[in-house]
């Protein structure tokens, strides 16, 4: 089986820098994409899956840190490398704390070191992806077997005398709303109302609550179906949001919007194509309504 070719996005407003980076990477066999403007890079990141992004810090419009912070939100597993011609402690601090960069290179950089870093990080990412894929398959087989066992277990009652239906109590209806999640060797129980949002990355879905995060190998599409009657909305290809938890929606950059929450400091993103249906969905809900600013 052929290995997937790694996709790399290069972002710099200086065309000579982009050409230099492309020359360095030309012999590595990567799929190279380039952007000279931050707004174009935002659109490319929002519509493509990149394995690695190399971005200049000082550009017109958004800074490199702002752009990489956006990337860290919509594609957390993308490797982020910041390059800059300025030696600024505040820039380094923000690069680490805000966008969680993997590497920081000053201009001029050493080509051999840059290539070595890119090779190693992409190799590590590929190995992690394979491990996650194997684990996903094993969990899938486990769910399949458990489903068969449940069917066989249920068939034992097929010849029992049919009983009259009993009306369910309010407590029993509440139990139907409980979600079960596996964490290590424990089974956890979670109500949909406790979830703020769900984020998908590399086939794994993260469920975020006020105090914790939980992980699931069910697809984001599967979770969208599970939660469709509980006030959740798909606001981005990588996010499902509990609209009752939204505090504020604000325009961030061009066609991108920030979604802020009550009680937690997280911010997630929504694009223009999702925002109008999201507002309409919220208006149709009977719960809390966030404020909107354009």
Automatic annotation (TrEMBL):
Entry annotated with the keyword Phosphoprotein: yes
Name this protein carries in UniProt: Stage 0 sporulation protein A homolog
Keywords: Phosphoprotein
Function: May play the central regulatory role in sporulation. It may be an element of the effector pathway responsible for the activation of sporulation genes in response to nutritional stress. Spo0A may act in concert with spo0H (a sigma factor) to control the expression of some genes that are critical to the sporulation process.
PTM-bearing positions, type 4-aspartylphosphate: 56
MF term (GO), any: phosphorelay response regulator activity
Record's keyword annotation contains Transport: no
Residue ranges of domain HTH LytTR-type in the record: 179-284
Organism: Ruminiclostridium cellobioparum subsp. termitidis CT1112
Domain of life: Bacteria
Classification via Pfam families: LytTR, Response_reg
């Amino acid at each position: 089986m052929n290995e997937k070719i790694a996709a790399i996005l290069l972002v710099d407003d200086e065309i000579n820098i982009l050409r230099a980076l492309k020359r360095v990477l030309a012999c590595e066999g990567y799929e190279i994409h380039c952007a000279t403007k931050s707004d174009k890079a935002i659109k490319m990141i929002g519509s493509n899956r990149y394995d690695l992004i190399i971005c200049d810090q000082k550009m017109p419009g958004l800074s490199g840190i702002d752009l990489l912070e956006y990337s860290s939100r919509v594609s957390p597993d993308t490797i982020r490398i910041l390059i800059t011609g300025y030696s600024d402690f505040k820039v380094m601090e923000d690069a680490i704390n805000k966008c969680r960069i993997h590497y920081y290179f000053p201009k001029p950089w050493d080509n051999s070191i840059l290539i070595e870093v890119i090779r190693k990080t992409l190799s590590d990412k590929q190995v992690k992806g394979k491990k996650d894929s194997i684990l996903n398959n094993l969990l899938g087989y486990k769910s399949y077997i458990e489903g068969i066992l449940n069917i066989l277990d249920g068939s034992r009652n097929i010849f029992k005398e049919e009983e009259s239906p009993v009306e369910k109590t309010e407590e029993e209806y509440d139990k139907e709303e409980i979600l079960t999640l596996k964490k290590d060797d424990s089974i956890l129980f979670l109500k949909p109302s406790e979830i703020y949002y769900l984020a998908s990355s590399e086939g794994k879905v993260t469920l975020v609550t006020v105090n914790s995060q939980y992980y699931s190998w069910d697809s984001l599409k599967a979770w969208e179906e599970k939660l469709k009657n509980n006030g959740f909305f798909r606001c981005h290809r990588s996010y499902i949001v509990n609209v009752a938890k939204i505090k504020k929606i604000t325009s961030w950059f061009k066609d991108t919007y920030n979604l802020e929450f009550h009680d937690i400091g997280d911010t997630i993103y929504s694009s223009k194509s999702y925002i109008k249906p999201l507002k309409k969905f919220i208006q149709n809900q009977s719960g809390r309504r966030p404020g909107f600013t354009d």
